[in-house]
């Protein structure tokens, strides 16, 4: 429950979606409605955005707990959204204020873009004057307005464009990116088969975020975005890169063009102009694919469900705790943290970014949107070129960088390796793949006929941009299995740096190598770990590569079984999730499960019978309602007594034919197929940062490396930051954040979402 800090605590909270629609908006509505109800408020749906507020009547109505059942997985917005010009006029806002008072609504949560939020803030600032006018003109009485002296407004950012300053992501942008990547992955096949070129046009209005991220996530050959207009003569630059890539054996050519693409004089660059250049100058058989509104539709990805749910909860918390003096907040996200900031300031920054673009200050526009935008863009450009002489390191600073995968396969291992290879080739380092982990390294040592250690070339890793699993092979074996041979191999292959990608075993492996440096000089090289594990359990980070792909796969599985549960009447599915507590908990939130069982929340006879009783009551009240199927997610390590099938059998038995229960296990299916866009982008970004870090050791002596704590590090995302943290030493991750027994970090930031799962399913009020 939210603490009451305001004397004028709202009782009725209206929710509306405005501007465009975006996947995830329904999740936000669901979270706002249920959190409002849990906090003793009434929730009101306002249909068709501000138009509904102006029209009133049937466009505004109470919305109940059950009304939003199943909304989490549905695309678009189920309460409608229009771009409303009438709300721009004072007359429209006057009418809206009247309806708000008549319906007794004293707070608004608005999910939309910058225009919608600007309107909301203006509405709030004008509120006392609007009320005054309504009374003076006799449209409302003093008594009617008495309880409505203030209006609380909170903004949620919903747009696929991700064009808002001050937040890393808007609700919907990653779902749109997923759609774009799915489409381009499919285009790959035809492009490769026919050695064709494709110009793919993506949405984003005046913002190039979707296009830039799509280019990184698909390894596109060339990119046009509004914030980085190409220099004059771009036709030659583009043709030269594409020719080089094709000469190196690449069969497909992909050019991504943002719909707002422009040159430095703000002249639009069209997909047909780009196609003409490719066809005429390179005689490349080229097609145009305009993805259009496909990008905006469809079920939201796991990230958008998580984001919209947690932001919806935060919106209600903010609405209930703000005072008349509090500036209207907008809910944002920075890396992994949901926060609020000033709506007016955020909108102002966004407008400034747009104005900078009109004034041709492209750099400022990009920085205002997101300080990392330019970093991403320049990394994309450099890694895409790979033979820019200016980027080469001096010869005495070029390193032999060994890459190894350790532990279970995780999506993101291949894209990360691809980025490391491209980075190395761009800078003149030698990328070396170690096949099949440490056992692979040791097995083929000395004079073995097959070498598991070999230099990598640009083309072979080219296709790994979206490939799941590990193409160089991963293994859970540790250096300690044969430390002597491992050290000999390091020496023989003259590694100057080791880039490890993997999960908790990889963490142990790097720790072992670090500690063995005293004894084995060949380990006195910089060691870096990029965490990759669907279990998301590597100390030092809140995020591991592969965890997003796996989560999306599990959520998709849950959507399908829930559909079956709903179709066959009263039914509950107990889904067994691999991937430590994280996967079960995050999937429960993203799939809208009734509850989650993990080792941290053990199942007892008491809790189980409480849940059965809750199910009984729920199904009794449902009267065969829509989408009534229920899900319980159980982590596979939860209990040795209560297995998934046993829990399902007990529920079924106790239900006494009133409802049905089944246990289902996705098993290794959960590892996922193609890598999710989030894992691809983060693989790229984190790999580049790791390589930049390794390079700081280039040319340093073994003693210097050993003396530097930062020579063995793990990269991670923590709260709002990307950090490279030393493993050893009193303040290192091994000592401060490692639960060695349970093989996970000591701090598990996501554990708090378990509470959100239960509160949004209604279970917590019951138990
Ligand atoms: O703002 C979202 C967005 O999908 C943009 O990417 C695109 O430019 C625009 O809306 C399309 O608008 P409409 O759906 O009105 O054609």
From TrEMBL:
Keywords: Allosteric enzyme, ATP-binding, Cytoplasm, Glycolysis, Kinase, Magnesium, Metal-binding, Nucleotide-binding, Transferase. The active site is at 161 (proton acceptor). It comes from the Eukaryota. Gene3D superfamilies: 3.40.50.450, Phosphofructokinase domain. SUPFAM superfamilies: Phosphofructokinase. Substrate binds at residues 159-161, 196, 203-205, 259, 287, 293-296. Its cofactor is Mg(2+). Its EC number is 2.7.1.11. One of its GO terms (cellular component) is mitochondrion. GO terms for molecular function: 6-phosphofructokinase activity; AMP binding; ATP binding; fructose-6-phosphate binding; identical protein binding; metal ion binding; monosaccharide binding. Allosterically activated by ADP, AMP, or fructose 2,6-bisphosphate, and allosterically inhibited by ATP or citrate. Beta-D-fructose 2,6-bisphosphate binds at residues 533-537, 578-580, 636, 668-671. Residues 1-385 are annotated as: N-terminal catalytic PFK domain 1. It catalyses: beta-D-fructose 6-phosphate + ATP = beta-D-fructose 1,6-bisphosphate + ADP + H(+). One of its GO terms (biological process) is fructose 6-phosphate metabolic process. It is found in: Cytoplasm. Residues 386-399 are annotated as: Interdomain linker. Mg(2+) binds at residue 114. Residues 400-767 are annotated as: C-terminal regulatory PFK domain 2. Residues 12-318, 400-694 form the Phosphofructokinase domain. Homotetramer. NCBIfam families: 6PF1K_euk. Belongs to the phosphofructokinase type A (PFKA) family. ATP-dependent PFK group I subfamily. Eukaryotic two domain clade "E" sub-subfamily. HAMAP family: Phosphofructokinase_I_E. This is ATP-dependent 6-phosphofructokinase. It comes from Aspergillus avenaceus.
């Amino acid at each position: 429950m939210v603490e009451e800090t305001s004397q004028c605590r709202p009782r009725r909270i209206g929710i509306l979606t405005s501007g465009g629609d975006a996947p995830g908006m329904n999740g936000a509505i669901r979270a706002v409605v249920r959190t409002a109800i849990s906090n003793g408020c009434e929730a009101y749906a306002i249909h068709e955005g501000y138009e509904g507020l102006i029209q009133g009547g049937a466009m505004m109505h109470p919305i109940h707990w059950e009304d939003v059942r199943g909304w989490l997985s549905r695309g678009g917005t189920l309460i409608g959204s229009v771009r409303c010009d009438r709300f721009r006029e004072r007359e429209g806002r006057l009418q809206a204020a009247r309806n708000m008072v008549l319906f007794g609504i004293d707070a608004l949560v608005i999910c939309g873009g910058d225009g919608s939020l600007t309107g909301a803030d203006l509405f709030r600032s004008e509120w006392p004057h609007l009320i005054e006018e309504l009374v003076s003109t006799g449209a409302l009485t003093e008594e009617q307005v008495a309880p409505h002296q203030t209006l609380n407004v909170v903004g949620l950012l919903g747009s696929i464009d991700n064009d808002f300053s001050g937040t890393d992501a808007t609700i919907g942008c990653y779902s749109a990116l997923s759609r774009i990547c799915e489409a381009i992955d499919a285009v790959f096949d035809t492009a490769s088969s026919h050695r064709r070129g494709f110009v793919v046009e993506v949405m984003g209005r005046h913002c190039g975020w979707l296009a830039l991220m799509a280019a990184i996530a698909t390894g596109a050959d060339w990119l046009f975005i509004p914030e980085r207009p190409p220099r004059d003569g771009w036709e030659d630059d583009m043709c030269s890169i594409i020719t080089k890539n094709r000469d190196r054996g690449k069969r497909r050519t992909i050019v991504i063009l943002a719909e707002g693409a422009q040159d430095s004089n703000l002249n639009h660059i069209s997909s047909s102009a780009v196609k003409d250049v490719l066809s005429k100058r390179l005689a490349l058989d080229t097609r145009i694919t305009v993805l259009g509104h496909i990008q905006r539709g469809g079920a939201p990805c796991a990230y958008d469900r998580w984001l919209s749910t947690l932001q919806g909860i935060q919106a209600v918390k903010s609405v209930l705790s703000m005072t008349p003096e509090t500036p209207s907040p907008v809910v944002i996200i920075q890396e992994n943290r949901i926060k609020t900031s000033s709506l007016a300031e955020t909108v102002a920054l966004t407008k400034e970014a747009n104005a900078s673009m009109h004034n041709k200050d492209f750099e400022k526009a990009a920085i205002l949107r997101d300080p990392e935008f330019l970093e991403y863009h320049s990394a994309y450009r450099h890694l895409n070129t790979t033979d820019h002489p200016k980027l080469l390191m001096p010869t005495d600073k070029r390193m032999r960088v060994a890459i190894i995968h350790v532990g279970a396969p995780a999506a993101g291992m291949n894209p990360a390796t691809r980025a490391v290879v491209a980075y190395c080739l761009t800078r003149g380092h030698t990328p070396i793949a170690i096949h099949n982990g440490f056992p692979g390294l040791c097995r083929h040592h000395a004079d073995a006929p097959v070498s598991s250690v070999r230099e990598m070339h640009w083309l072979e890793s080219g296709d790994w941009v979206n490939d799941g699993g590990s193409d160089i092979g991963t293994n859970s074996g540790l250096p300690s299995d044969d430390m002597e041979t491992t050290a000999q191999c390091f020496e023989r292959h003259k590694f100057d740096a080791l880039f490890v990608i993997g999960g908790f075993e990889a963490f142990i492996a790097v720790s072992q190598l670090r500690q063995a440096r005293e004894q084995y000089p060949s380990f006195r090289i910089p060691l870096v770990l990029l965490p990759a594990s669907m279990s998301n359990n590597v100390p030092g980070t809140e995020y591991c590569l592969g965890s997003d792909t796996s989560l999306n796969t599990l959520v998709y599985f849950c959507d399908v079984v829930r559909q079956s549960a709903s179709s066959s009447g009263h039914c509950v599915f107990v889904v067994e999730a691999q991937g430590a507590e994280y996967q079960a908990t995050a999937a429960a939130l993203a799939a809208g499960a009734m509850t989650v069982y993990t080792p941290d929340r053990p199942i007892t006879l008491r809790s189980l019978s409480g849940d059965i009783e809750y199910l009984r009551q729920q199904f009794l009240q449902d009267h065969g309602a829509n989408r009534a199927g229920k899900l319980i997610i159980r982590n596979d390590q939860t209990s040795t007594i209560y297995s998934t099938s046993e829990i399902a059998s007990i529920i079924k038995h106790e239900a006494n034919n009133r409802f049905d229960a089944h246990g289902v296990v996705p098993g290794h299916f959960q590892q996922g197929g193609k890598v999710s866009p989030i894992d691809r982008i983060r693989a790229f970004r984190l790999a580049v940062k790791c390589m930049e870090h390794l390079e700081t050791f280039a040319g340093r002596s073994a003693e210097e490396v050993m003396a530097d704590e930062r020579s063995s590090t793990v990269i991670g995302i923590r709260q709002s930051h990307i950090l490279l943290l030393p493993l050893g030493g009193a303040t290192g991750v091994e000592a401060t954040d490692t639960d060695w027994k349970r093989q996970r970090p000591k701090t598990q930031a996501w554990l708090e979402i378990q509470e959100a799962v239960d509160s949004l399913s209604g279970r917590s009020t019951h138990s």
